[in-house]
Design goal:
This protein is an alpha/beta fold. About 30% of the residues lie in helices and about 25% in strands.
């Protein structure tokens, strides 16, 4: 058991923690990342790797309550709530339901668009500056539809998104199929978001870890943080490898952040939203760009190195099982849309917990009542997409500099 003292401790080595470490290093600070497993092994690892300003609208939207009630007890639906006695979950759901109105939808969309647009630009700069080898391609993303009514609803929503700087293009089903033979007949239309991009997320976090180390940061893997506290001299973390001290500490534990927050005396309305993906070898006939099978809420991402189906949202606590129904839903949706829905080799069947805040907005702020503790959590399904902007915002706040974006939407005291 050893003790060490550093400038800034970062608790959590996923996309958010590593991006925060890099931004702090750029600002001239020293960092030590404390990661319970290996860097990037959590929710950063198996998501679909789409970088999506187009996803600015929050899950909490007008009409979502009725839709969720139809879905929530159906194991194969895009949203599933496992029946159980869980007061924290039901408290979260009540908070979420209260946000499903036009006023709160607009406020959340504004905050999410700001951080997504900043992160999209900043990520491209980082990838170029540091030579991050993560199969990053700026080719846009398409929503594709087989249901006419859903296509029309989403086209109407796109008009509202233009206010937030999110451009879109509408393509007829016939024209889309003529340009991309990987999809089956029956497509009624598509919506293209030209400002989106994609990368391979496991390689992105591995490259972030490489650059953090090269620039003098320390990443301690297998270092589980058991508790943290702050006092006049800074922050102290009790870990499985001994005490670690820093002038400041950043809590970037994703879906595990509420547990640490509770021990510190404040409440974070964050639930673990379980997502799934299946990664295959690359089929011979694949979509030309990332697509979302919008009628089924399934994402399809193609890289030179592979092919991934992903998405779904399951509220089942910290359940560690692979739900075969949820995995089957991914493949079933792909078979409905794609001529070659899967690759010849299944490389990985994965789940991970996304930190879902009740307003679908991240928490990036000083921890309530703790001068030397900071929060960077609650990014939901968009941790990779929001990572670069989050890291910069934390670095700005910790350093007392004018922030790159307005931090007000991400304040921790909004939950009081």
């Amino acid at each position: 058991m050893t003790s060490s003292s550093d400038d800034i401790l970062i608790i959590g080595g996923g996309a958010i923690g590593l991006a925060t470490a890099l931004a702090l290093l750029e600002a001239g600070r020293g960092v030590r990342v404390l990661e319970a497993q290996t860097a990037g092994s959590g929710a950063s690892h198996g998501n679909c790797g789409t970088i999506t300003p187009s996803h600015a609208p929050p899950l909490a939207a007008p009409g979502m309550i009725l839709q969720a009630m139809r879905w929530m007890l159906t194991p194969g639906a895009p949203l599933y709530v496992k029946p159980r006695f869980d007061p924290a979950l039901w408290r979260w759901l009540l908070r979420f339901a209260a946000r499903c109105n036009r006023r709160d939808w607009h406020a959340s969309t504004l905050g999410r668009a700001a951080i997504l647009n900043d992160s999209r630009t900043r990520m491209a700069e980082w990838i170029g500056r540091y030579g991050l080898q993560c199969e990053f391609v700026e080719e846009g993303m398409d929503y594709v539809f087989r249901e006419q009514a859903n296509f029309e609803r989403n086209m109407a929503d796109c008009e509202a998104l233009r206010e937030f700087g999110i451009a879109s293009e509408f393509i007829s089903g016939r024209d889309y199929l003529a340009a991309d033979p990987s999809l089956k007949e029956g497509l009624v239309g598509a919506i293209r978001f030209p400002g989106d991009a994609r990368l391979r997320p496991d390689r992105y976090v591995a490259e972030l870890a490489r650059v953090v180390r090269e620039r003098g940061g320390t990443i301690e893997e297998g270092c589980r943080v058991e508790s943290v506290r702050s006092d006049a001299s800074g922050a102290r973390a009790r870990t499985s490898l001994g005490e670690r001290r820093g002038r400041e500490a950043v809590i970037a534990l994703g879906a595990w952040s509420p547990q640490l927050a509770k021990s510190l005396g404040f409440y974070l309305p964050i639930q673990p939203g379980k997502g799934y993906s299946i990664t295959y070898s690359r089929p011979s006939l694949v979509p030309k760009r990332p697509i979302t099978l919008k009628d089924r809420s399934v994402c399809v991402t193609v890289w030179d190195s592979g092919f991934r189906l992903g998405s779904t949202m399951e509220f089942s606590g910290y359940d560690t099982s692979l739900n075969e129904t949820r995995l089957g839903m991914l493949e079933s949706a792909a078979r409905e849309y794609l001529r070659e829905p899967v690759g010849a080799i299944v490389e990985e069947r994965w789940y991970g917990w996304r930190p879902m805040s009740s307003d679908d907005m991240p928490v990036i702020d000083r921890a309530p009542g703790h001068d030397h503790l900071w929060l960077a959590t609650g990014h939901g399904m968009l941790g990779v997409s929001m990572s670069a902007a989050t890291g910069q915002l934390v670095a700005d706040l910790v350093g007392g500099r004018p922030p790159a974006i307005d931090p007000a939407p991400y304040r921790a005291d909004r939950f009081r």
